Amino acid sequence: MDSNSITLIEGKRLYFNELEQLYPDDERQTAIASDRMLLQDPVPATQPCLPMSLRLLLTLILLASPAAATSTPAAGAVPRLLAGLDRHAAEAIGCRIWRNEAAGRRDWLVHWLPGEDHLSLGIGHFIWYPEGRRGPFLESFPEMLAFLERSGVAMPAWLDRDTPSPWPDRAAFLAARDDPRLEDLRAFLVRTVAAQTAFMADRLARAVPAMLEVASQPAAIARHLDWLLRDDAGQLRPKGAYALIDYVNFKGEGTDPGEKYKGAGWGLLQVLEAMSSDHDAPEAAFAAAAAEVLARRTRLAPPERREERWLDGWLTRIGTYRTFELPPASASGLRRRPAAGPATQRDRRGPGAPWRASAPACASAARAAGTGRS
Question: What per-residue confidence (pLDDT) applies to 277?
């Protein structure tokens, strides 16, 4: 039996131990049945994902990677690392990303910026192109809807992964101030903050194999992931999880050859490669590396793009990786697995939602900051 098989067996043993702790008896078989598909395919793009699946996906990818198997014990510790990404952590991370992308404003959860040819939606400002149109960026909003559908999250009755964008251009969007679909979207996005964070965590997990494949030092990447995600007690480090999830949504994976200036990229891979062990805290090392990578990007960018005008804002965002902390669970009013609220007449509820929809604590501040109108 090779080392990959041994580490996969250990990962599965830890997985089922975690299931016993996280799920009551009547829900455990549903979780196992859904997750079994993930154990058969370590990089599923279309399979159902439960909370454990999101946390174990990165685990199994790292364990199954030949680079990880020959690199460092850090990769083998991952089964315990992401097991702490429960609803409380997901909502807190999601609320911080909402502030990064949309200033924490409810009205900016559905936004169309001047000069752009697409809507930006949700805490991650996921892209949604008008029907029949495609652009240079990945259309991520339908992908996010598909993820939420697979997770059983209730959706507005008119909305699913195949629904075209309701507005053909920015002028039509701005004229639709009283369109009930606009309020449907905002309400839906407010109550699915945790699920949107889970989608971004899934993107991070699916990015790891490609990063390890092209990295010049995959063992160092595995060590840096472990350093960011695991504390001294072997538990998840929310700061590290936030930094990784936010940055991959912010600047991408760093594996696209087309996303480089003069041969230098600026994605998550490049930041992990630039990390130094000279810092006491991994978030400080990650933030310093990110600042260096983004400053290099502005220096190498074509002069006509004037990217230096964005650098201060980018560095402010990077600075939150050092300071982010989870609020106390009691203060936020969150529970580990809250009961599902009643479905409204406008909602279509899927079976067994692992990220059951409810507004997070930060939504009250969002209501104060935004009027609900664009």
Answer: 85
> Can you tell me the distance from the alpha carbon of 57 to that of 85, in angstroms, rounded to the nearest whole number?
12
For residue 289, which of 312, 313, 260, 322 has the smallest C-alpha distance? 322
Q: 170 CB contacts (<8 Å, ≥6 apart)? A: 112, 114, 116
3-state SS assignment for residue 162: coil
- Single out the residue of 58, 55, 57 nearest to residue 47, CA to CA: 57
Give 347's strand partners.
156
- pLDDT for position 174: 96
Q: What is the pLDDT averaged over residues 118-147?
A: 91
pLDDT at position 210: 83
* Cα distances (Å, whole numbers) of residue 223 to 273, 331, 351: 11, 34, 38
> Which two three-digit tokens encode residue 225?
């992931």
Provide the edge-to-edge strand list for the sheet that holds 126-128.
Answer: 110-111, 119-121, 126-128
- For 240, residues 6+ apart whose C-beta sits below 8 A from its C-beta are 227, 228, 229, 230, 282, 283, 286
Residue 87 token pair? 């609803």
276-296 per-position pLDDT tens digit: 988 989 999 999 999 999 999
Task: Give the H or E element holding residue 245.
Answer: helix 238-251
Amino acid occupying residue 234: G
User: How many other CB atoms are found less than 10 A from the CB of residue 9?
Assistant: 12
What does the alpha-carbon distance between residue 195 and residue 201 come to, in Å, rounded to a whole number?
Answer: 10
Q: What integer is the mean pLDDT of 44-53?
A: 38
The pLDDT value recorded for residue 254 is: 94
CA distance 318 to 66: 32
297 and 266 Cβ atoms separated by less than 8 Å? yes
The Cα 210–Cα 253 span in angstroms is 9
How many angstroms separate the CA atoms of 176 and 13, rounded?
Answer: 53
Say if residues 135 and 129 touch (Cβ distance below 8 Å).
yes
pLDDT tens-place string over residues 171-185: 999 999 999 999 999
